[in-house]
Write a structure and sequence with these properties.
This is 4-hydroxy-2-oxovalerate aldolase. This protein is α/β, with parallel strands linked by helices. Helices cover 45% and strands 12% of the residues. Strands 1-2-3-4-5-6-7-8 form an eight-stranded parallel β-barrel, surrounded by seven helices. Bound molecules: the ligand CC[C@H](O)CC(=O)C(=O)O and manganese (II) ion.
């Protein structure tokens, strides 16, 4: 494969990883990690509450630190890397987006459920007007086939998105499915195609390589797998693998390994691994960010978290319906009580 692929990586640990640490990032952590990623020449670093701008709430989990302070801190130490923010219309507002742009965020990633791209129009258009690079982020992409995915991606492209991502939020896609969907997106879109994976079924790396082989050039990773569920495609591993394949990312391999080992690993509450709950998420097709919510509900109601996750998957519960996790756990607990 040619090394002239123009692959650009986005590091998402300071946003997607926020789910894994219950949104407890401090200014010091964000400053240290961003500074180091900037030195390693990572092109984009996403910094926001796990559920995007405005996500700090009872429903999604309160941030320890105001995300605007985290964005400001990241911008202040990044003279190479561009700071990206995530926005889910309905959670974050146009006002939130303007605040982030004023602080120096250069990329807006507008995320919708895979069948609801139409709600991203106003936000993508505003981000363009603010002079930001724009990404349309189609979450839970495993829930539709290529045809629907292409239809929704085209909408985002028509609103002005510079890139449209296939987002495997549940880590449920398999390499042949990623390959087929990416091929369809590349055939039908003129903008860049991106891929964001989760490692719940241990295939995030395989999925990412399949996407790249089919022409995806905007790729997400989380350093030390610091992302929701079992984490994302592991950034430092991806950089090394791509270098072995002769594909340039511009990221310094030794530096990114050192950040993972010396700066990120020490802040993890526990090592990121595929345990039975994250595996169940990939197996059942459940949003990775539901992991800690489901763990808490399992403890509170005394129900196996796998039963909760399997039921959420059966009901096709999507982002924004976090309250259903409690509902389902309470219902299952009630059934168990009746049965005994
Ligand atoms: C809740 C937003 C979500 O974490 C975005 C994302 O990274 C995904 O869907 O994988
Ligand atoms: Mn994610």
């Amino acid at each position: 494969m040619s090394n002239q692929l123009d692959i650009k990586l986005t590091e998402v640990a300071l946003r997607d990883g926020s789910h894994a640490i219950s949104h407890q990032y401090t200014v010091e952590q964000v400053t240290n990690i961003t500074k180091a990623l900037n030195e390693a020449r990572v092109p984009y670093i996403e910094v926001t509450h796990g559920d995007g701008l405005g996500g700090s709430s009872l429903q999604y989990g309160r941030s320890l630190t105001d995300e605007l302070k985290l964005i400001e801190a990241a911008v202040s130490v990044a003279d190479f890397s561009k700071i990206a923010v995530l926005l889910l219309p309905g959670i974050g507002t146009i006002e939130n987006l303007k605040e982030a742009a004023n602080l120096g965020a250069k990329m807006a990633r507008v995320a919708t459920h895979v069948t609801e791209a139409d709600v991203s129009k106003q936000h993508i258009e505003t981000a363009k007007e603010l002079g930001m690079e724009t990404v349309g982020f189609l979450m839970m992409s495993h829930m539709v086939g290529s045809e629907k995915l292409v239809e929704q991606a085209k909408l985002m492209e028509s609103y002005g998105a510079d890139t449209v991502y296939m987002v495997d939020s549940a880590g449920a896609l398999l390499p042949h499915e990623v390959r087929e969907r990416t091929r369809a997106l590349k055939q039908e879109l003129s903008c860049h195609v991106g891929f964001h994976g989760h490692n719940n079924l241990s295939v995030a790396m395989g999925n990412t390589l399949a996407a790249i082989e089919e022409g995806a050039t905007r790729i997400d990773g989380s350093i030390r797998c610091l992302g929701a569920g079992a984490g994302n495609t592991q950034t430092e591993v991806l950089v090394a693998v791509l270098e072995k394949m002769g594909i340039e990312t511009g990221v310094d391999v030794y530096k990114i390994m050192d950040i993972a080992e010396d700066i990120v690993a020490p802040i993890l509450p526990k090592p990121q691994e595929i345990d039975r709950d994250s595996l169940t998420m990939g197996y059942a097709g459940v949003y990775s960010s539901f992991l800690l919510h489901a763990n808490r509900a399992s403890k509170k109601f005394g129900v196996d978290s796998r039963d909760i996750l399997m039921e959420l998957g059966r009901r096709e519960i999507v982002g924004g319906q976090e309250d259903m996790i409690i509902d389902v756990a309470a219902e299952l607990a009630g059934k168990e009580k009746t049965a005994t």
